[in-house]
Amino acid sequence: MTVPGADRQRFIYAIGDLLASWNLSRATGRTYGQLLLEAEPVSLDALAEALELSKGAVSTSVRELVSWGLARTISQPGSRRLLVEATGGLESLLSASHDRARSFIHVLREGEHLTQEPHAQQRLHDVTDLFEGYIDAGEHMLTQHRSSRRSR
């Protein structure tokens, strides 16, 4: 029989490995895995202790998760300490990803005038179209996700 603590650790390490495949650090993935299992927001100290990581590694991981829209920090009145919690998952991840894609599209459009070569122009248009399609598909997926949640 498997001990529940071992199952938790396997899950946390699996999330670490998966996020590493997205070019995030394993510590960031493990931090996210731990946050997903927490019922309430937790301190950086509690995360560091649970994950057996340094507070600096956890702090860096939290900043990375916040930038990806996977976590948020909550300030404590009268204290410099922050609490951290995982965000809503799909919605926040897609929202952050869409913001990055929109920035990329903006730069691509600014570069369109830099070449008169037809092949290069077509490539720029194709990449722009791809990212616009990604955003459109993601927005459609989010709309369906929100509708299904409301109907529950």
Work out the strand percent.
5-15%
Please report the distance between the alpha carbons of the first and last residues: 35 Å
Discrete helix count: 6
CATH architectural designation of the largest domain: Orthogonal Bundle
CATH superfamily assignment of the largest domain?
A: Winged helix-like DNA-binding domain superfamily/Winged helix DNA-binding domain
What's the pLDDT, averaged over the residues? Answer: 89
Radius of gyration: 20 Å
User: How many domains is the backbone divided into?
Assistant: 2
Number of strands: 3
- What summary fits the major beta sheet? 3 strands, antiparallel
Briefly note the structural class of the backbone: mainly alpha
Describe the structure.
By secondary structure, this protein is mainly alpha-helical. The chain has two domains: 4-86, Arc Repressor Mutant, subunit A; 90-150. It is 69% helix and 8% strand. The chain is built from six helices and three strands; from the N terminus they run H-H-E-H-H-E-E-H-H. It has a three-stranded antiparallel beta sheet. Helix 3 (44-51) packs across helix 4. The radius of gyration is 20 Å and the shape is elongated. The chain starts with a helix and ends with a helix. The model has no long low-confidence stretch (mean pLDDT 89).
In brief:
The protein is mainly alpha-helical. The protein has helices spanning 4-20, 26-37, 44-51, 55-67, 90-111, 118-150, and strands at residues 42-43, 71-75, 82-86. The longest helix has 33 residues, at 118-150.
